[in-house]
Please model this.
Amino acid sequence: MKTAIVTDSTAYIPEEIRIEHHIHMIPLSVIFGNESYKEEVEMKAEDFYEMMRRQKELPKTTQPSTGKFVELFEKLAKDYDAIISIHLSSGISGTYQGAVTAGEMVEGIDVYPFDSESSCMIQGFYALEAAKLAREGVNPEEIMKRLNELKAKSWAYFMVDDLTNLQKGGRLSGASALIGSLLQVKPVLHFVDKVIVPFEKIRTKKKALARITELFEEDAKKGTPLQACVIHANREEEAKAWIADLQEKFPNVEFTLSYFGPVIGTHLGEGAFGLGWMPK
Model:
């Protein structure tokens, strides 16, 4: 059986790696005024943050239409027997549901939608694992089982420089955002039940990053081989410094440097950082 792997642009897997692993990508879009841009296709992260600094209004984001999913799935049906479609958390976007709906509409191929309950490179790790197993000829049911096993052991924490965007975009409760603005805290956030919620309120960025590192260490010291990603919103040099520090402390962990692209960056804002990990 030949299985195609699909993910959306919020996995932020570099194009050359997607091509190498035969991962198909469907983009979400970011909208400035009347102009819509497909992220990772028509707008890259560095251009997005520069444009966002010049705007008074927060850009909007949109998921792919069901029709775009149908179009992609029908194209893949010509060469594949099944599709595993891996998407950002259904609690913050309707993208996963779009894949579910399209999968029910397309004939001649079995579609297996997977809700990562996360986003960014953690979502990318699922896609890369699925692609590896698909190459080895593992059937889609077994691939889905493996992804769900990984999900039970995956963690991601992040901090934002300013809670305003999360509040405006409705991705965090207004009360939490207000408290953050008044106290100037740098809250550590995470996903619970598919949505973004505060984990701890911390006063400074330095302390927030140290706390996230501490949470990671609790898992890393258990001895299970891990893969981890440091994610940044237009703070590459700081992210490289953090990853160098982590690599020195945890030489047995495989680290990847990644970024918050336009869609996720719209909600987190410039200056956000994250650390996610799962078993290798």
Remarks:
- The chain has a mean pLDDT of 92.
- Residues 120-135 form the longest helix (16 residues).
- The radius of gyration is 18 Å.
